[in-house]
Amino acid sequence: MNRNMEANVTTPSDGEDEEEYVLLDLDAVTNLVNIPPNAKYILTGLDTLNPLLIIDDKLKLIGEYEETIGTCIAFTEQDKPVVHEESGPSDANLFSGTRIIDSNQPPTKQVKPLCKLHKVLKFKISPDSEIQSETTKVAK
């Protein structure tokens, strides 16, 4: 399961706000622990070399930035209903030019670009995290 989150970082530069998007990569952590989809989290230190991510007040993760190579774009995915457009001569079809939503078809996915990414923030479990000590006990 790929667990990624986005963070929008605003940094001041010459009086103007400049937005920078960062992808939070939790792939290395999800193999070791189960993170609930709606878990509470605190993300601090985005302007430091090693930001901290604390999940559910017990799982402490340490991040490390990696620059992206080339253009990295994040996309968003939305359900879109299947639409049929009626066409043909108007005398043969009373609904010519009308769009009809087909409720028998499952919605399709529509993908749109969301933002460009300049950095990826990869996380690993902190040595002093409660979860780290629990996984160490299990391994022994």
Automatic annotation (TrEMBL):
Protein name: Transcription factor TFIIIC triple barrel domain-containing protein
InterPro entries: GTF3C6-like, TFIIIC_triple_barrel
The organism's place on the tree of life at top rank: Eukaryota
Every Transcription factor TFIIIC triple barrel domain range: 17-124
PANTHER family listed in its UniProt record: GENERAL TRANSCRIPTION FACTOR 3C POLYPEPTIDE 6 (PTHR21860:SF2), TRANSCRIPTION INITIATION FACTOR IIIC TFIIIC , POLYPEPTIDE 6-RELATED (PTHR21860)
Name of a matching Pfam family: TFIIIC_sub6
Chain positions covered by the region annotation Disordered: 83-105
Compositionally biased tracts (Polar residues): 93-105
